[in-house]
Amino acid sequence: MSLVHILRRLIALVAILFLVSALVFAITQILPGNAAVMILGQNATEAELKALEGALDLDQSAWVQYGRWIGGVLAGDAGVSMISNQPVMETVLTALGRSLVLAVIAVLVMATVAIVLGVTAAVRRGRFADLVISALTYPGVCVPEFVVGTLLVVLLARPELGWFPAGGYSPPSAGLADFARSIALPVLTLTIILTSRISRQVRSEMIDVLKSDYVRTATLKGLPRRAVLYRHALPNAMLPTLTILALDIGYLIGGIVVVEEVFAYPGLGRLLIFSMQSRDLPMIQAGVLVMAVVYVLANFAADLLHGFFDPRIRADA
Amino acid sequence: MREILRKLARNPVGLAGAVILSVLALVILFGPLLAPYDPTGFHVTRRLEGPSLDFLLGTDQFGRDLLSRILTGARPAILFGIGATGLAVLAGGSVGVLSGYAGGLVDEAIMRALDVVLAVPALLFTLLILTLLGSGIVNAMLAVAISFAPGFARLTRASTLSIRERDFVAAAIARGEQHAYILCREILPNLLPPVVVEASIRIAQALMIGATLSYLGLGAQAPASDWGLLVAEARDYLFRNGWLLAFPALAIGISALGFNLLGDGLRDLLNPELDA
Q1: Of A8, A94, A100, B228, which cross-links B211 as Cys (Cβ 3.0–4.6 Å)?
Q2: How many CB pairs below 8 A link A and B?
């Protein structure tokens, strides 16, 4: 992948993000008639409405409103929360940090487990191990995160067991052991859901690769089974898997929103749900935008990695 | 159609899905009649009980019969999935087909617009639309439909692009058929297999999202017997009566499983070569 190609992708990415910001802003502030009425309810007095409209720039044209907002966001100032009066950007970024901890650990654990399960199932295709893995992963595709999370609470967070807290967050500064215990169940929930999805994909990719000519060549040339699998088959199954992983980042973000709510984990997802329930407009706008930025950047990174691992893309770019 | 059903019967995955869905269909049709009790009736002396002969699946914190609540909850849950997906197929499908058939600048513009929508993670987009529309089960269904539509638009566009290149379309154009004829008689029938497969898997997702939204307090509101709501209500009594969580979870899981299995079975069966 050449530098020009990367630059071109970067420019497209910035353009998309600007359009996304406009979309988010339009949905939250421009479209619903009057945001002030929505926030204060139908019984608000004229004076209250006027004051809020002034504060939100609702008396200005849509373009002016958007311009002021996005200008502020770019300068690191997305206004103040209408509920807590805290600066929005700071609150959102702190919460984002906590969510990223969950996401990164879950993805690392999941990738390891899913690859092992997927490869095992593919190699033992149609035999006992494959059936067991399929049977174990199928339910994971059919049960939503909030159910898995709640089930884990019942099983592992019973007060009499004292293993894990049923929710909440303990910062690393207050002791690493407590921190680890507070993120264990959210991470486990995400891992279970994602592993089911990804390991099924790894399995089907691996089955395709195992049927390919070069794997047959490697086998026929007398290489040990292990070398065929790990040197020839697995790297080629990794590329499509990487793409699937990237696609599932969007799914992971949705999962995090739900899991944080289940475990009362104070990340960006829970912040967003709370802001949506309390109609905290500046917080919703910044939160959604930040999540979209993370999502788009993660996809971009996956693309780069893909180009890095795939010699064909590197050569012809 | 009969051909497809016969093949489906020989495909174990699809058959399992079809069997589960047939049972579900019965529950949807007769669920409220099968319910042994009024789903909102309180049995104050029999609260938070486990399964027994009186209450097959136990009772909740007000002594409501869990079985009755799950049976009445089936209809809204499944219809939510089917409704949201159906709307998404209609909206996304028409955009995708027109985009793929028109080609050129129109196609380019529509696809770039979809890129923007798809740059927002799906559940987030759903939540955003729900903030705009306000909570409630119908709004939740609309929100899910809107967030599913771009996916269907992409799928149908890709399929339309490849169908458009086939000889029978060229023949229809050569015969001087009108656009409407070519779209309805040549392209739409060939779009069905990939769309049906995708839709059946999407229904499973939609019904899980519907339950999730209710769980988050943004979908169905109490005292509805919504499955997601049942789990949400069970939260405070988890350690006293775990069945309150287990049975609704099972109901959601089995329904989603049915649609997923059917989708997988149909995929093997129809082997849609145009699958994008």
Answers
A1: B228
A2: 125
Burial of A46 (0-12, 13-18, 19+ CB in 10 A): exposed
Q: Which residues of A are less than 8 Å from B212 in CB distance?
A: 144-146, 258
Distance CA A168, CA A303 (A): 35
Backbone angles phi, psi at B120, to 5 degrees: -100, 125
Q: How far apart are CA A178 and CA A316, in angstroms?
A: 50
CB B188 within 8 A of CB B97: yes
ipTM of predicted complex: 0.80
| pTM of the model as a whole | 0.83
* Segments of chain B scoring below 50 in pLDDT: 272-276
B173: which residues sit within 8 A by CB, 6+ positions away?
B182
pLDDT tens digits, one per residue of B138-152: 889 999 999 999 999
Alpha-carbon separation of residue A178 from A58, A168, A171, B99 (angstroms): 46, 11, 8, 54
What is the C-alpha separation between A93 and B90, in angstroms, rounded?
39
Report the amino acid identity of residue B177: E
Interchain pair A145, B116: CB under 8 A: no
Pairwise CA distance, residues A158 & B236, whole Å: 13
